[in-house]
Amino acid sequence: MSLSNRTVVISGAGGESGSVLARELAAQGASLALLGRSPQKLESLARSLALPEARVLTRSADLSGPDEAEAAAAAVAGKFGRTDALLHLVGGWTGGKTLLEAAAAELTEMLEQHVWTSFHVVRAFLPRLLANGWGRVMMVSSPFATRPNAKGGPYAVGKAAQEALLMTLSQELRGTVLYLLSEEAGAATAVIIALAELPCLLA
Fold it and tell me: Are the C-beta atoms of residues 9 and 89 closer than 8 Å to each other?
């Protein structure tokens, strides 16, 4: 399968999952926009991909706010002229405390990482996807979004809200097929297949 002439944005590209997916997508011919908080990690990843300069963009961005998310989307448009898919991997984990023990700041952090970054990147990149007439918005979900465990409340709340955001978007956009990817084995393969089948899935 080939992803030639497709531009894929990976937010949270500096993490382990982002690095794995970037390598898989690059091997399939996609052009990549790598977003994250650490410019050093992004540059290291870009060098390891050994892509032509015309096929890769790195940009350090804190996506928890609207301004940097919009600036990142504008930079991608300026470099590649289009965005075909947004793969949003920003997030983190906290746990080990009951709700009585957890600090309010832990919930705030989970909402910022999972919900606010998702909200801002969707608002920044979605108009570019709609301009194509089709596209992909993908986020990583978790079983804890619907089946939370004890001592994991802030994380479960963050993932549940993120999933609700994407499910709402799927109802609002009948012309765009959206995927929720689970944090289970095989997620990387699911991404590659979904992206490669853009034309037939959205015909």
Answer: no
pLDDT at site 175: 55
SS3 content of the chain, % helix, strand, coil (to 5): 55, 15, 35
pLDDT of residue 7: 94
Q: Which residues contact 142 (CB under 8 A, 6 or more apart)?
A: 155, 156, 159, 182, 183
How far apart are alpha carbons 127 and 158 in whole angstroms?
Answer: 25
Q: Enumerate the domain spans of the chain.
A: 7-201
What pLDDT was estimated at residue 66?
Answer: 97
Model pTM? 0.88
CATH superfamily of 7-201: NAD(P)-binding Rossmann-like Domain (3.40.50.720)
Q: How far is CA 132 from CA 7, 96, 137, 202, in A?
A: 12, 44, 13, 12
Instruction: Provide the 8-state DSSP code for 89.
Output: -
pLDDT under 70: residue ranges of the chain: 1, 134, 174-203
